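Q: Mind making up any chain with structure tokens?
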Amino acid sequence: MKSKPVIQFAILAILLAGNAVAQQTGLCGNAFVNPFGWGPFDYLNPIDHATKENIPTLEKHHFNINVQMGRSQGQTGSILGDLRFILRACPNHHPALNVLIKYHVRNQPLVPPTESVSCYLERASQFNPEDGMVYMLKGIYLARTGKNEQALTAYQRGLELVPDAADLHYNVGLLYAELGRLEKANEHAVRAYTLGAQLPGLKRKLIRLDAWNPDIATSAEVTATDHEEESQ
């Protein structure tokens, strides 16, 4: 008889394989159809009357402090239930996606393929292909799960869409530092802080590595340069 750890490992392997298949074959579902029958709404469209009225209501009932902090006990039940409700009604809800990523990376819950982080991110980019912050979140998830090259690709797509996003440059800088590409890390760090990034972690890391140089010239051209290099 198989031991419990072996069985759990086998189940996890099956679910991970299912996640990949779901994403590749389009089984993540249609982002424009909410099984709960409400929405969907675009997180980036505050002009839309329905979005202005419904996203605050959605957050009031499903995004309390427990959910925001990533606690297993959410607002109406389990945190995954609350996040599922939010992200089906608003597929590109950035804060909810961020919580989902952190929760999955930390706890590695066993979920059906359509409820995987990959599928939530797929539906988010399907719903609004021009939302660069979704690609940033995708890059964060890929980097935290060891898929660094795929993370760079996601970040580069994000930078094409929102070249002046401080948080995006900050996360790109972190990944380049992790990869030992310190000159690139510094370029994006300086760009991030110029754009208003507040977190000191990246700067401190570069100082420890003797790679912090705030005097370099930075501009939106950093994005184009990175893209050309990654394409070679």
